[in-house]
Backbone:
């Protein structure tokens, strides 16, 4: 019965979305307050209805109601409770419902917290948001009903892919979807602004917090996914340039560009129409990602293998949303205006450089991701574009932005002093030179470049804070007073840049200084990696809640003294009839010792793969720091209150 | 460096030109990189017909022939077949969790002088009921070759 209730709630939500997508637009055009006001109520109503549907599906999973097809196909009564719950979004239908839940949540938040928006504008934003909602509700109900019943119900479910039965992956989709779908708000704001033909500072000030929130979710979600891939897939790597990873990375790049251009639009009314265009592009890339993952056109670990009918539907949604918004843009952008002009060497100029680089890098990722699909569609052969392509294009493209990243925040608005900024960055330059020298001593040119960039960006962010606080030049009292009055946005921006520095250092060191060893081992055998001795002590059989496993005992010895014991596992899940590899990782936060085991062979012994990955934890630590920086900026009262720009000159924020 | 006396119009032109230069550079970079790094997919039958010279990297797809798997230390050898022809594959490392005889796989690597395939990477789809599209494609191509 609850399943039918959920289905019914979804149908009602579609009805509300249709109302919300049309009447408030009419009301805004004809200045009818009642029709404009309607949008706020329907937005909240939609969220409640979708939440009911989501609750109904979650209940079916938790209670193991196998008469619901999605539950029967993706769950099992022996699965631990946590994975019965997270299994709700471990498949196409349920994850779509999660997508809807977050989409309507954002709509409801615009309705609740958007009180200081102009009424007509808020009504238009909510109407556009409801158009997206209509599309996805119709998609869910018509092609992917999560509440379809099976008769007779099977005795037990088919289980969930064991790779997904993991705490890291349990929370990866909600964070990622928060980011993807959060970008829909920026999209709705952009389309509403184009309808009105008006983009002002208040608009940019509204777009920023939503984009910041979405960006923080996207950053954390991507980091969690990459961490999961690192420890669960057992390949020792953290990023594979897999099309589905790219599908999440492209909106991230566009959203990063949007965050920065919105600063210029908010503070200086520069880059106005460009910011609107980016908002459209960022969400369009989210939709493209949804298409790539859900249409079955890709070979990927993450892809939901589904039927082409769904792919066509999402492609249609993508075409209408992107095509419609871009057509509107072409028609109305002249009314919006490009914005206040500025000199190339200025804060705006630096933000524009950031944008150009990010968008270009995003375009090369898009090309590499879609090229095999194009060739296949043209029947010109099956090809794959792998990590070498992305390493050869993405890295050199992003390099200039990394150099400019430390300088940009030091430049003044409108007209900057490049020589002065560089002079004040002497400490960062010194740090970069030292880092490069240290890496060169190991004979690694690439590592020298990467570590120099990390030191330059990280120290640059610290120098920028120091400059704002007049650290070392003003009395301690003055510095303290400045630290207290410095806007949260400035702390957040610096923190996010520091996070980038940490990520760059982690990626560089783990790529350039990784050691790897593959060998067959018998009990008593030893191997040496990165100065450690690893002794294979044997394998024991263990029984988990819904799997059984071979667990190896690998003793880590440092100069003969026992340091740690690694227990990599090879699990077998009988319900799903599937093996998985569980890596054992010992981390010191400066380096990971990483072990996985393969199959056993009577003569050769057990295949063991060992890695020593220096600084690899920094990648995820840095990503968390970046997300925290965004949250800190988000708590800036200037954004929260969304008050009109004050006349008083404020310290510049990036 | 930009002279400070630059007019807004020239300034905009400067921005436009630098943006176009960046885009042009990126396009050139991307296209050369695509050309260098793109890997074609070939089926065992195409390999048997001599479609790929030794040393060129490509992706090989098909089914792991039952009973063909042999191990020595951390190295394995097996045959990938598409119903019409087969190629011997040598690989050192851990096989994917779903690697099994009779299963579809995709291997990345190159042919050596003796027409055996030296794999650098082996992929199997993480789903019991699922066949990698490229493995399915190899079977389809082989079927077509037999039929025609």
Residues:
């Amino acid at each position: 019965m609850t399943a039918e209730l959920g289905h019914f709630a979804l149908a009602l939500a579609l009805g509300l979305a249709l109302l919300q997508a049309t009447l408030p637009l009419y009301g805004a055009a004809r200045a009818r307050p009642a029709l404009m006001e309607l949008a706020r109520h329907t937005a909240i109503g939609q969220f409640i209805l979708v939440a009911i549907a989501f609750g109904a599906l979650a209940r079916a999973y938790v209670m193991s109601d196998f008469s619901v097809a999605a539950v029967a196909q993706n769950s099992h009564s022996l699965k631990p409770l946590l994975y019965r719950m997270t299994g709700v979004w471990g498949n196409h239908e349920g994850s779509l419902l999660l997508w809807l839940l977050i989409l309507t949540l954002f709509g409801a938040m615009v309705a609740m917290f958007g009180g200081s928006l102009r009424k007509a504008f808020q009504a238009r934003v909510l109407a556009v948001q409801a158009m997206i909602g209509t599309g996805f509700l119709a998609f869910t109900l018509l092609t992917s009903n999560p509440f379809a019943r099976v008769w007779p119900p099977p005795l037990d479910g088919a289980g969930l892919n064991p790779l997904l039965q993991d705490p890291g992956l349990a929370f990866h989709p909600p964070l990622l979807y928060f980011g993807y779908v959060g970008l829909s708000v920026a999209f709705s704001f952009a389309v509403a602004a184009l309808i009105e033909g008006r983009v002002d500072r208040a608009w940019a000030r509204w777009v920023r917090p939503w984009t910041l929130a979405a960006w923080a979710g996207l950053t954390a979600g991507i980091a969690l996914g990459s961490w999961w891939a690192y420890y669960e897939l057992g390949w020792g790597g953290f990023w594979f340039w897999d099309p589905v990873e790219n599908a999440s990375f492209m909106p991230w790049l566009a959203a990063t560009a949007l965050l920065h251009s919105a600063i210029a639009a908010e503070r200086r009314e520069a880059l106005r129409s460009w910011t609107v265009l980016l908002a459209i592009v960022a969400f369009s890339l989210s939709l493209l990602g949804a298409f790539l993952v859900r249409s079955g056109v890709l070979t990927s670990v993450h892809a939901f293998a589904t039927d082409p009918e769904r792919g066509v539907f999402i492609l249609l949604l993508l075409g209408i949303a992107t095509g419609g918004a871009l057509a509107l843009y072409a028609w109305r952008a002249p009314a919006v205006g490009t914005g206040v002009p500025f000199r190339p060497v200025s804060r705006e100029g630096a933000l524009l450089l950031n944008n150009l680089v990010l968008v270009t890098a995003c375009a090369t990722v898009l090309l590499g991701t879609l090229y095999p699909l194009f060739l296949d569609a043209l029947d010109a052969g099956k090809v794959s574009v792998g990590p070498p392509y992305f390493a050869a294009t993405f890295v050199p493209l992003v390099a200039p932005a990394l150099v400019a990243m430390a300088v940009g925040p030091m430049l003044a608005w409108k007209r900057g002093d490049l020589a002065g900024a560089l002079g004040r960055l002497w400490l960062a330059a010194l740090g970069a030179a030292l880092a490069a020298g240290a890496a060169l001593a190991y004979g690694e040119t690439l590592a020298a470049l990467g570590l120099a960039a990390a030191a330059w960006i990280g120290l640059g962010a610290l120098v920028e804070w120091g400059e704002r606080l007049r650290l070392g030049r003003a009395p301690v009292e003055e510095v303290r007073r400045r630290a207290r009055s410095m806007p949260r946005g400035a702390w957040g921006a610096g923190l996010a840049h520091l996070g980038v520095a940490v990520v760059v250092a982690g990626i560089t060191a783990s790529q350039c200084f990784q050691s790897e060893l593959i060998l067959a081992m018998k009990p008593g055998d030893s191997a040496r990696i990165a100065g450690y001795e690893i002794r294979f002590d044997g394998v024991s059989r263990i029984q988990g809640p819904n799997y059984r496993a071979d667990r190896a005992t690998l003793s880590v010895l440092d100069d003969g003294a026992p340091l740690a014991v690694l227990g990599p596992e090879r699990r077998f899940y009988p319900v799903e009839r599937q093996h998985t590899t569980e890596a054992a990782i010992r981390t010191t936060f400066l380096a990971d010792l990483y072990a996985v085991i393969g199959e056993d062979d009577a003569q050769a012994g057990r295949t063991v793969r060992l890695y020593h990955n220096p600084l690899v934890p920094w990648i995820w630590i840095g990503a968390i720091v970046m997300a925290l920086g965004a949250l800190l900026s988000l708590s800036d009262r200037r954004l929260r209150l969304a008050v009109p720009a004050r006349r008083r000159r404020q310290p510049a924020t990036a | 460096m930009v002279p400070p006396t630059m007019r807004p119009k020239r300034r905009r032109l400067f921005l436009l030109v630098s943006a176009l230069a960046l885009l042009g550079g990126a396009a050139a970079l991307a296209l050369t990189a695509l050309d260098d790094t793109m890997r074609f997919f070939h089926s065992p039958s195409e390999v048997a017909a001599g479609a790929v010279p030794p040393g060129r990297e490509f992706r090989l797809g098909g089914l792991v022939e039952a009973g063909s798997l042999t191990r020595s230390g951390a190295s394995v050898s097996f045959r990938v077949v598409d119903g019409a022809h087969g190629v011997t594959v040598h690989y050192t490392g851990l096989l994917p969790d779903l690697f099994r005889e009779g299963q579809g796989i995709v291997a990345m690597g190159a042919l050596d002088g003796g027409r055996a395939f030296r794999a650098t990477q082996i992929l199997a789809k993480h789903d019991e009921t699922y066949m990698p599209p490229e493995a399915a494609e190899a079977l389809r191509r082989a079927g077509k070759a037999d039929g025609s």
Q: What stands out?
A: The first strand of chain A starts at residue 383 and ends at 384.
